[in-house]
């Protein structure tokens, strides 16, 4: 700080000249000290205010450097995990190829059972080793456990191996806002989870008042904003930016109709339906206010509608979430809206169950002057489909009607409620005499009574879902069972996927006497199952000519079944059921899917006893065996079982699922070796090959990831250098410049001192 | 005309030259006295006499001994002094603040912030590890402590400045009394005749007192005819002649501290403190430090509430078995947006997860929060009722308006997720920070005691680390509530505000100092002692004295001649 003050022009006093000299000396010393501090500390800026712009820059640079350092740390840590993972997977690869050679060495006809037993011992060791690798722990993390990295993922479960991890990625930051996956899950590396069962049935739930806007449009949600509603004369803007649920939207629209009009917003199972009072006429239009796409997102954007409505919105496809009620999943409930003029008057009546059976019920409000307010009577007629309420005309309120219906026999099937979309509806308004009819019901009620059967690891488990209220309850019933399955909502939020956690045995989901599994899309053997997929992909081989098998009916007739041309299980069933020679009710053999478990079941109610009820293979075709009707290695079915006047031949489940894991391949191999089953050994070798392929893909992907991390790491080091040098040039002292400045200042300081000495001596007194 | 009258003339001359020498001596003696104004003897020819029709002079007389002062220049210098001392104080305060909060200090808030988010990024690297989460909690504590320490150091500085204000007020009273007394003495000495031979020493003393006073508060002075000076501050007089109005200190509360304000004792009206040391102190205490504290508080508030908003949607490695909200509601029966919470919830929902440790299964329940002003808005007590209805949970409100949730089954823990309403953050449930300003911000005791509850997951208890991903990027995530500014930006604003203001204050102070120095230079040019000039005056008086002595000797010779006739 060297401030030069002006020298007065008129006179000079001794005091001021000595003060000026003193000030100059001090300034020079101050300058020297500042330079000395800069040089010794290496910092150009002592206090931030010395150079505010540079300080601000330095703050940003410092932060960036810290963040990049952490990223470097992330990459280093993750690289160590990935390297370890790679090593482990290389070991798995070796293990699989040696198991493969072991298998091949005993597959030929030269090998005997005892050699295969020995080989089975070797494979048994390999399974143990694989399990050890799968449970490898590095730096506190189980490498293959998915995101459940604190628990060992693989555990022997009898002869099988159970995976208790998940398929969730762990991610770290590889740059600002850039994530990379830092693990390989057991599911990806070992195929430890089976492919998900499900997905054939869409479980998109019905839209209700409590459906969240963020779940609409397949989870894309609704962009917050306002919409404009016009009747062609006046326009109103409805602010929906704070709406959270579809019910909020409906309530906001009803609360802000165009001037002088009444608006109605109905929530249908697929979305919204908006209308204005018919009496006012006009053309209802709904448009966007501003740039957000709220109206379009709600599916109600329509500027060309003729008439006062309703504008029926596009389907909203809400996501299936954990808290979605099961009742909304595979159907919708019939509903009716009973409006009356005025405020707090509207009533909504909703069926308690899904299904079209509750459509067409008429709700009548009839004036009966013998009725006192609060004592309305309800008559419920399920045959004529009507709910008639006797009310005190002009006096009975909406609340009275709701209470009356809810306390009547109609309450068994319907729930009455005040319309939540009417503004501040407390039910205090008097109802008008009217009649309205229920509609919109559809689909079916989920069969919760029956439940599911899951076969896994040789055991059959019955899953009871009778107490489940929500999708999560259903998932918990599955996940919480002993069946070793992982049930989850699929990634697109449209259905439920069930995976098996168990490697080494068959897995199937079947019915438990009802239709639950089919409704949820979880049944593993259905009419739509491709014949070529059956029996672990072995398919159903058919005879080149002639019938594949005969069904010997009890009346002695032999039904010739030729499967050629049949693609699906249903086709095969139809071949039997639609055979022209099998149409007499008394002697008919009916094929169908098992009511309990899986498999094709042949049934007959014929009481004649000409010949035993049986399935007999023909022409060397093993189709009947492949359909499960004839036991393996035999040519004729087991004797039928009789019960309740019917005889049945129950086929076994021929579409079992399995995991595609290395464990599965090895365990299958071991089992085949032990049982001296060459076909099984051949299949197991195929399984080993496919899991080796999967492993190699995973390793290739892992290698690519490691490589990209190395590249990032290198560029990070450069970036770090650049940042450091920018920071240095911003806040660090330029030593050369500072020393030059110091020298200059020293010179001027010396001059000032000399001048001070000389000037102080100058006085007239010396010359007198 | 006689020889004797000539002698008389000469004797007068000698005496006058002696007086001249005396003044020169006085000036030389005070050549280095600060605030001294040079005195000057103003000589005039004596009256003339008519002798035999001729007009003859009667020698020399002293017209006056005056000081070379310019009252207006003095007034300007005093104003400049007020400005200078006021601005110097502000600048000093800024520099002290910078040395506490400086963006380049080590450690500073910037490094604490990045250290905190880096430690969260570390959680992503080992999500299964409780120790890493513990580190994140500790780093959060470091951050909170750092902010607390800025607040307490700033408050300490404010307290110091406040003490200085009280002390300075005493000095103002002392100076006012002194000026009043001097006014009386000067009027008595000068006899009410301004411009006559003036009470030089007393005026110097008074000028000194006025300068000291101007250094403390801004004053305006008016010279009165009787030689006294009136002192004004703003529209009020402080001294008029001998009458003095004392000032006093008034106590009040500001930003959690007792502060002093300076008022006139008699009328209770506040002083005008736009400049001067006290003005500078008040500005430093309230404007500089108070303003900084306000910014720091709003920064800390934003940090806590925005971090909690994200954090409260997550789950830890473990759930809670019992949890009490950190923030009480003023009214448990008021809608949540009117329940006097620190932050205001909006309509939305959150989910409560009840997690069974043994089976690993989770039960999710949606809780709707409505605060849209329509019927059925959610209050704290009906929130408790909703939570209480969840199987396995017991929820109630405490007497002080907090929400308390307890798991009723020892195998079950609970956690929260997907809060779109901000209710959890507002109630201090499942939050990381508590407190809403720089003094009160702290890490929630719940997570500090059990770091395994650090909410890193988004998909359930101990499932993933998706919330930690967001938290790790928290510093640079645009905040909707701050028009897209990030926490890093908010910190940048606090820091650059301080730096820029400090820089401005410093240059203001420098320029006020330069202006004051140049006015001082002008004062010195007018009234300062120049020894060479005094030496020349000394020679002049000496020579005149010698000449007059020679004149006497000549007259004496003449008389001798005459006597010897």
Structure summarized in a few sentences:
The complex is a heterodimer of chains A (768) and B (565). Chain A is an alpha+beta fold and 768 residues long.
Percentage of residues in strands of chain A: 15-25%
Rg calc of chain B? 40 Å
Q: What does the overall shape of chain A look like?
A: flat
Low-confidence stretches of chain A: none
Distance between the termini of chain A: 41 Å
Give the % helix of chain B: 40-55%
Write down the overall mean pLDDT of chain A.
87
Q: How far apart, in Å, are the first and last alpha carbons of chain B?
A: 20 Å
**Strands ordered across the widest β-sheet of chain A:** 19-15-14-21
Q: What is the number of E strands of chain B?
A: 18
Number of strands of chain A: 35
Order of helices and strands of chain B: HEEEEHHHHEEEEEEHEEEHEEEHEEHHHH
Query: What composes the largest sheet of chain B?
Result: 4 strands, antiparallel
Q: Quick one: overall form of chain B?
A: rod-shaped
Query: From the alpha-carbon coordinates, what is the Rg of chain A to the nearest angstrom?
Result: 41 Å
Report the major sheet of chain A.
4 strands, antiparallel
Describe this structure as you would to a colleague.
The complex is a heterodimer of chains A (768) and B (565). The longest helix of chain A is centred in the first third of the chain and has 54 residues, at 52-105. Chain A has 15 helices and 35 strands. Chain A is of the alpha+beta class and 768 residues long. In chain A, the strands form eleven sheets. A four-stranded antiparallel β-sheet of chain A has the order 19-15-14-21. In chain A, strands 17-18-16-20 form a four-stranded mixed β-sheet, with helices on one face. Chain A has a four-stranded antiparallel β-sheet with strand order 23-22-27-31. In chain A, α1 packs antiparallel against α15 and α2 (52-105) runs antiparallel to α3 (113-134). The longest helix of chain B is centred in the first third of the chain and has 61 residues, at 130-190. Chain B has helices spanning 3-29, 71-101, 109-125, 130-190, 200-216, 276-311, 380-388, 423-427, 445-449, 466-472, 487-527, 531-563, and strands at residues 39-45, 48-51, 54-57, 60-67, 220-223, 229-233, 236-240, 243-244, 247-254, 257-264, 322-324, 348-356, 362-369, 393-397, 403-407, 412-417, 433-434, 442-443. Chain B contains twelve helices and 18 strands. With 565 residues, chain B is α+β, with helices and mostly antiparallel strands. Helices cover 51% and strands 17% of the residues of chain B. In chain B, the strands form seven sheets. In chain B, strands 5-6-7-8 form a four-stranded antiparallel β-sheet.
């Amino acid at each position: 700080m060297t401030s030069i003050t002006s020298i007065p022009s008129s006179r000079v006093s001794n005091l001021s000249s000595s003060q000026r000299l003193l000030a100059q000396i001090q300034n020079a010393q101050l300058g020297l000290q500042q330079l000395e501090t800069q040089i010794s500390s290496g910092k150009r800026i002592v206090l931030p205010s010395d150079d505010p712009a540079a300080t601000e820059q330095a703050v940003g640079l410092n932060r960036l450097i810290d963040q990049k350092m952490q990223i470097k740390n992330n990459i280093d840590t993750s690289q160590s995990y990935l390297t370890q993972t790679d090593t482990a997977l290389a070991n798995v690869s070796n293990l699989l190829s040696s198991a493969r050679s072991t298998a091949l060495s005993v597959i030929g006809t030269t090998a005997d059972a005892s050699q295969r037993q020995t080989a089975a011992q070797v494979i048994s060791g390999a399974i143990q080793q694989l399990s050890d690798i799968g449970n490898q722990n590095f730096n506190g993390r189980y490498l293959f456990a998915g995101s459940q990295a604190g628990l060992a993922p693989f555990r022997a479960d009898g002869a099988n191996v159970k995976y208790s991890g998940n398929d969730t990625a762990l991610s770290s930051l590889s740059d600002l806002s850039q994530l990379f996956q830092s693990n390989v899950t057991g599911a990806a590396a070992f195929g430890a989870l089976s492919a998900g069962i499900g997905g054939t049935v869409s479980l998109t739930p019905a839209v209700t008042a409590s459906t969240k806007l963020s779940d609409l449009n397949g989870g894309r949600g609704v962009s917050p904003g306002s919409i404009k509603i016009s009747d062609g004369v006046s326009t109103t803007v409805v602010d929906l930016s704070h709406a959270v649920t579809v019910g909020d939207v409906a309530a906001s629209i009803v609360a802000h109709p165009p001037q002088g009009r009444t608006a109605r917003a109905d929530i249908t199972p697929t979305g919204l339906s908006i209308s204005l009072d018919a009496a006012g006429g006009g053309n209802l239009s709904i448009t966007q206010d501003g740039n957000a796409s709220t109206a379009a997102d709600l599916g109600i954007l329509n500027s060309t509608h003729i008439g006062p409505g309703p504008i029926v919105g596009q389907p909203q496809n809400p996501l299936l979430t954990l808290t979605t009620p099961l009742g909304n999943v595979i159907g919708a409930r019939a509903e009716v809206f009973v409006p009356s003029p005025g405020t707090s008057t509207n009533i909504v009546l909703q069926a308690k169950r899904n299904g079209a059976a509750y459509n067409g019920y008429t709700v009548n409000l009839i004036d009966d002057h013998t009725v006192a307010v609060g004592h309305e009577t309800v008559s419920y007629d399920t045959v004529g489909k009507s709910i008639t309420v006797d009310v005190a005309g002009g006096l009975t309120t909406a609340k009275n009607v709701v209470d009356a219906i809810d306390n009547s026999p109609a309450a068994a099937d319907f729930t009455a409620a005040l319309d939540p979309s009417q503004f501040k509806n407390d039910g205090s308004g008097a109802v008008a005499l009217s009649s309205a009819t229920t509609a919109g019901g559809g689909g079916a009620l989920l069969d919760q009574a029956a439940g599911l059967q899951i076969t896994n690891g040789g055991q059959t488990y019955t899953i009871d879902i009778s107490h489940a209220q929500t999708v999560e309850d259903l998932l918990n019933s599955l996940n919480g069972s002993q069946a070793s399955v992982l049930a989850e909502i699929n990634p697109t939020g449209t259905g439920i996927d069930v995976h098996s956690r168990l490697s080494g045995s068959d897995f199937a989901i079947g019915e438990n006497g009802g239709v639950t599994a089919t409704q949820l899309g979880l049944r593993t053997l259905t009419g739509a199952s491709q014949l070529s997929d059956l029996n672990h992909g072995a398919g159903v081989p058919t005879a080149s000519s002639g019938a594949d098998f005969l069904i010997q009916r009890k009346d002695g007739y032999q039904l010739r079944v030729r499967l050629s041309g049949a693609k699906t299980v249903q086709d095969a069933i139809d071949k039997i059921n639609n055979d022209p020679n099998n149409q007499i009710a008394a002697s008919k053999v009916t094929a169908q899917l098992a009511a309990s478990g899986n498999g094709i079941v042949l049934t007959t109610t014929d009481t004649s006893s000409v010949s035993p009820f049986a399935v007999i293979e023909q022409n060397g075709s093993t189709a009947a065996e492949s359909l499960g009707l004839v036991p393996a290695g035999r040519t004729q079915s087991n004797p039928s079982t009789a019960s309740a006047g019917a005889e049945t031949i129950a086929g076994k489940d021929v579409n079992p699922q399995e995991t595609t894991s290395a464990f599965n391949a090895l365990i299958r191999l071991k089992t085949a070796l032990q049982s001296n089953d060459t076909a099984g050994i051949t299949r197991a070798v195929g399984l080993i090959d496919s899991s080796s392929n999967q492993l190699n893909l995973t390793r290739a992907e892992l290698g690519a990831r490691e490589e990209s991390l190395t590249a990032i790491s290198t560029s990070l080091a450069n970036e770090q250098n650049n940042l450091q040098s920018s920071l240095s040039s911003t806040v660090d002292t330029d030593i050369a410049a500072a020393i030059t400045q110091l020298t200059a200042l020293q010179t001027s300081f010396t001059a000032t001192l000399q001048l001070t000495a000389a000037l102080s001596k100058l006085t007239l007194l010396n010359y007198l | 005309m006689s020889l004797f009258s000539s002698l008389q003339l000469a004797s007068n001359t000698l005496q006058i030259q002696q007086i001249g020498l005396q003044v020169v001596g006085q000036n030389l003696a005070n050549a280095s006295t600060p605030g001294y104004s040079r005195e000057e003897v103003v000589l005039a020819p004596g009256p003339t006499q008519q002798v035999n029709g001729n007009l003859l002079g009667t020698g020399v007389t002293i017209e006056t001994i005056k000081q070379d002062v310019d009252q207006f220049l003095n007034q300007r210098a005093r104003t400049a002094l007020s400005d200078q001392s006021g601005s110097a104080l502000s600048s000093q305060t800024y520099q002290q603040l910078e040395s506490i909060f400086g963006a380049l200090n080590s450690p500073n808030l910037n490094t604490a912030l990045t250290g905190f988010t880096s430690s969260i990024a570390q959680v992503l690297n080992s999500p299964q590890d409780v120790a890493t989460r513990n580190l994140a909690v500790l780093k959060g504590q470091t951050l909170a402590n750092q902010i607390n320490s800025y607040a307490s150091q700033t408050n300490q500085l404010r307290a110091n400045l406040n003490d200085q204000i009280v002390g300075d007020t005493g000095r103002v009273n002392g100076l006012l009394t002194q000026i009043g007394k001097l006014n009386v003495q000067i009027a008595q000495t000068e006899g009410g005749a301004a411009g006559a031979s003036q009470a030089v020493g007393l005026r110097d003393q008074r000028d000194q007192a006025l300068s000291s006073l101007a250094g403390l508060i801004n004053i305006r002075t008016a010279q009165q005819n009787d030689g006294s000076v009136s002192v004004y501050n703003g529209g009020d007089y402080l001294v008029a002649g001998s009458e003095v109005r004392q000032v006093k200190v008034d106590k009040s509360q500001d930003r959690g501290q007792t502060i002093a304000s300076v008022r006139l004792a008699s009328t209770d009206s506040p002083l005008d403190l736009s400049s001067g040391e006290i003005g500078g102190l008040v500005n430093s205490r309230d404007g500089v430090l108070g303003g900084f504290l306000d910014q720091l508080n709003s920064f800390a508030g934003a940090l806590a509430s925005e971090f909690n908003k994200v954090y409260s949607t997550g789950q830890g490695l473990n759930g809670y078995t019992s949890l009490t909200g950190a923030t009480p509601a003023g009214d448990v029966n008021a809608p949540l947006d009117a329940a006097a919470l620190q932050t205001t919830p909006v309509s939305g929902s959150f989910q409560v997860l009840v997690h069974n440790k043994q089976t690993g299964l989770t039960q999710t329940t949606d809780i709707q929060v409505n605060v849209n002003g329509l019927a059925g808005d959610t209050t704290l007590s009906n929130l408790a009722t909703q939570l209480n209805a969840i199987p396995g949970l017991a929820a109630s409100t405490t007497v002080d308006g907090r929400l308390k949730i307890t798991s009723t089954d020892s195998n079950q823990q609970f956690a929260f997720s997907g809060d779109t309403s901000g209710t959890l953050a507002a109630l201090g449930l499942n939050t990381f920070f508590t407190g809403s300003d720089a003094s009160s911000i702290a890490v929630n005791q719940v997570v500090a005691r059990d770091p395994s509850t650090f909410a890193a997951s988004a998909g359930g208890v101990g499932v993933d680390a998706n919330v930690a991903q967001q938290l790790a990027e928290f510093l640079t995530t645009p905040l909707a509530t701050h028009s897209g500014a990030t926490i890093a930006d908010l910190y940048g604003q606090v820091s650059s505000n301080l730096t820029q203001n400090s820089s401005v204050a410093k240059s203001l102070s420098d320029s006020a100092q330069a202006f004051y120095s140049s006015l001082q230079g002008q004062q010195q040019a007018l009234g300062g002692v120049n020894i060479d000039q005094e030496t020349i005056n000394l020679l002049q008086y000496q020579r005149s004295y010698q000449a007059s002595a020679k004149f006497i000797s000549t007259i004496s010779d003449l008389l001798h001649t005459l006597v010897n006739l």
